[in-house]
Amino acid sequence: MEQTAAEKITAAEQKPSIYTLQLHELKNWLKDNNEKAFRAEQIFDWLYTKRVTSFDEMTNLSKGLRDSLSANFSLTTLKTIIQQESSDGTIKFLFELHDGYSIETVLMRHDYGNSVCVTTQVGCRIGCTFCASTLGGLKRNLEAGEIVAQVVKVQQALDETNERVSSVVIMGIGEPFDNYDSMLSFLKIINHDKGLNIGARHITVSTSGIIPKIYKFADENMQINFAISLHAPNTEIRSRLMPINRAYKLPDLMDSIRYYINKTGRRVSFEYGLFGGVNDQVEHAEELAKLIKNVKCHVNLIPVNYVPERDYVRTPKDQIFAFEKTLKKHGINVTIRREHGHDIDAACGQLRAKERKEETR
């Protein structure tokens, strides 16, 4: 959707986020501005280890450099509008961006650590019929720094209790592969040992199936965990749930996944939301097992959250277990995703849809 004139002016006046720069890019900027390149590591330390909120706090830098950074970059790019906390410890943040748009970020607590689910776009153009994120369509892509800032903001909240973000999933609002370059830069910044130093094996990126970008991502040969939003065992059901399947056909998607596995040696995760009476019967499980036979994979069954703007209903528990049992019978590695935030606006995009109706109308 085209920006209004006011939005274009605001966006043009907005300084780029310092979090957008990878370490080598910051070194280049410093050299271009007659500063020593080693200052980049000092700045990264202030940003990602000390997690300061203003350039003035970077006390081992000269005042001239601090002023130059302040003149050229923004540091605090997200404003917390709402912070919802669930009884299970899940925290959902609604952040406002510099142009007034809003995004969601979720902190999920697990036995193995704290995981952050980040957003890559304001809205989404993919149009999955079960998802609140796509309501109102795509407004704009996030720059890499706006994605990085989500993790920093959550880490700053955890700093108060001496906790740490231990893993990141790129499964929030938007299609990550539709904002590929920013997503890739984000991955490199949070993975860098001078950045947030989150191990590649503790980062997961998910796509609805933009096939050309799957091939491209495979060729990056990163050790990032890779997930596919599959949600259906055949073309007919997938096209009903996910219109992207009409552009990128299921057989072609499976070919790209096999290429990824062969290229990287890593397994993929299939995200499979269970929708009552649509894709959750035993015969669907049988069909799914046949589709992914001999594919190095794991299936993550997701009991869907109810979204008021959508018509889908939850699958009964006994049916979920029957689906799981059927896959296991065929030797498929499968788990049922643990629910998070059941007592808050847990579904992706749901808080934004409720609080920012003008954005999702």
Please supply descriptive tags for the structure shown above.
361 residues, alpha/beta, DNA polymerase, domain 1, TIM Barrel, 10-stranded mixed beta sheet, two-stranded antiparallel ribbon, 14 helices, 12 strands, 38% helix
Helix-strand blueprint:
Blueprint: H1 5-13, H2 23-32, H3 39-49, H4 63-72, E1 79-85, E2 91-96, E3 102-110, E4 113-117, E5 121-123, E6 138-141, H5 144-159, E7 165-170, H6 180-191, E8 203-207, H7 211-220, E9 225-229, H8 235-241, H9 244-247, H10 250-264, E10 268-274, H11 282-291, E11 297-303, H12 317-329, E12 334-336, H13 350-355, H14 357-360
Parallel strand pairs: 4-7, 7-8, 8-9, 9-10, 10-11, 11-12
Antiparallel strand pairs: 1-2, 2-3, 3-4, 5-6
Helix pairs in contact: 2-3, 5-6, 7-10, 11-12
Describe this structure in words.
This protein is an alpha/beta fold. The protein is elongated. The model is unreliable at 1-12 (pLDDT under 50). It folds into two domains: 22-72, DNA polymerase, domain 1; 80-360, TIM Barrel (Alpha-Beta Barrel), CATH 3.20.20.70. The protein contains 14 helices and twelve strands. Strands 1-2-3-4-7-8-9-10-11-12 form a ten-stranded mixed β-sheet, with helices on one face. A two-stranded antiparallel ribbon has the order 5-6. It has helices spanning 5-13, 23-32, 39-49, 63-72, 144-159, 180-191, 211-220, 235-241, 244-247, 250-264, 282-291, 317-329, 350-355, 357-360, and strands at 79-85, 91-96, 102-110, 113-117, 121-123, 138-141, 165-170, 203-207, 225-229, 268-274, 297-303, 334-336. 38% of the residues lie in helices and 19% in strands.
